[in-house]
Design a protein that fits this description.
The protein is 79% helix and 0% strand. The protein is an all-alpha fold. Helix 1 runs antiparallel to helix 2. The model has no long low-confidence stretch (mean pLDDT 90).
Length: 168
Amino acid sequence: MLIFEKLIRTLSRWLHWIALFGLLGIMFLAVANMFSRVPFDPIFGTFEVVGYLGALITAFALVETQLSKGHVSVRLLTARLSPQTQVFLDTITTFVAMGVFGLITRQTFIFATGMWGEGRLSDSLHIIIGPIIYITTIGCGALTLVLLLDFVKSLTRSIEVLKKKWTR
């Protein structure tokens, strides 16, 4: 389990750095586009590239955010429940989230394969769209792995809580 967690943390770090460079690319492109508008024409395809980099940033940043528990979590309803119930609900919701993102990963992979197979191109720059959609698939797949890790940890906590409850 420790090796799996190390692997996921390393993958997360790499994806986080790629997302960071994507954000820097958006900032550079936006500033360059603004300054080029006055003396020249705007940079062709800026809107498209910013959109693709935004998808990359979102897909890759989700992984690190989930690992660091940076998502907003609503504990208003569960705060009043017993610790055993809280751990059980955490296990269930993590399992459901893992299933949902597993399905999203599968469907985006199928969609990207279809788009690439058809040779679909972007509107302005005429870039093949399939590889860009695969980027989202990689982010969702990595998030699914993080949720799998969280599920195993949560399941382990649930078992420990049940053991304590039954050994009293």
